[in-house]
Amino acid sequence: MVEDVKKLSQQQFGDHAAGYVASAVHAKGYTLSRLIELLAPQPDWHVLDVATGGGHVAMALAQHVRYVIAADITHRMLQAARSHIEQQGITHIACCQLDAEWFPFAANRFDGVTCRIAPHHFPDVTAFVRESARVLKPGGLFGLADNVVSGEAKIARFVNTFEKLRDPSHHWAYSLEDWESFFFAAGLAVRHSEVIQKEIDFDDWAGRMGVAGDDLVRLRVLLLRAPDAPRGWLKPRQVGSRLVFMLSETVLIGQKPL
Questions:
Q1: Span 106-132, average pLDDT
Q2: Phi, psi of 111 (to 5 degrees)
Q3: What is the pLDDT of residues 148-175, one digit of tens each?
């Protein structure tokens, strides 16, 4: 079952790799600059960027550090990221295909580990956080940004169902409290946490994963006819001809003890 989820994720992101390289949500956005600001990367750092997607975090880090490994489970996504990186003339980023739940690196290897807008695809986020902590040097920082849901079970189930209809490789988005518990279990001290809301254009969001026809209609209806509690979380509204809604995203910084 777990392997099926991972294969589906590889298929989905392989098919839409170019869209993620070009995606404004991934290429820009508050959480990208916020991660860099909070990590305060240093010139001598070696950093691992997990589930790099289009390589946007890796390229942002490369402006500040000695070396970055941009890693992803999907080969075609890595090819798209590498092409994008090379076009920018950046030479100190290496690309590596790996599973987010098992890293082929020795313990205490990196000054920083990052992952942005990806762990909701991972079948076992506790293994991912443990691996991130393992490969960090003592005192190293783990920077995470990902979609989060309400701690209320009914809202969490609805939002995750909505996400999975759009993208079958979506596994589960957790609450901020869940993430803080994952950090604690891996021995990471939470140095910073925040939750922000981002406005999502429905058509862009659905189109990035190739949703069309009856599936697009069902997705729209699910959003517009959501029960009161999930509707209060997603906040759908019409802005001219555009349908927009809100997703919540956390930025968490954890530190490995010295």
A1: 97
A2: -80, -25
A3: 999 999 999 999 999 999 999 999 999 9
Calculate the average pLDDT of the chain.
91
Q: What is the DSSP string of 150-183?
A: -SSHHHHHHHHHHHHHH-TT---PPPHHHHHHHH
Helix and strand totals (H; E) in the chain: 12, 8
- The token pair that represents 80 in the structure block: 């798209």
> How far, rounded to the nearest angstrom, does the alpha carbon of residue 182 sit from its chain's CA centroid?
16
Tokens 């170019």 belong to which residue?
A: 18
Spatial distance between the Cα atoms of 208 and 166, rounded to a whole number of angstroms: 10
Q: Is 154 exposed, middle or buried (0-12, 13-18, 19+ CB in 10 A)?
A: exposed
The sign of the dihedral angle between the CA atoms of 184, 35, 93, 119 is positive
Give 124's contacts (C-beta < 8 A, 6+ positions apart).
2, 101
Give the dihedral sign, CA 180/184/187/189: positive
Question: What is the β-pairing status of strands 136-148 and 237-239?
Answer: unpaired
Which residues 6+ apart lie within 8 Å of 213 measured at CB? none
For the domain bounded by 2-255, which CATH number is listed? 3.40.50.150
Q: Which helix (H) or strand (E) holds 34?
A: helix 30-39
Q: Model pTM?
A: 0.89
Which residues on neighbouring strands pair with residue 145, listed in sequence order?
116, 251
Calculate the CA 13 to chain-centre distance.
13
- For every residue of 80-98, DSSP letters joined together read HHHHHHHHTT--SEEEEE-
How many angstroms separate the CA atoms of 142 and 103, rounded? 15
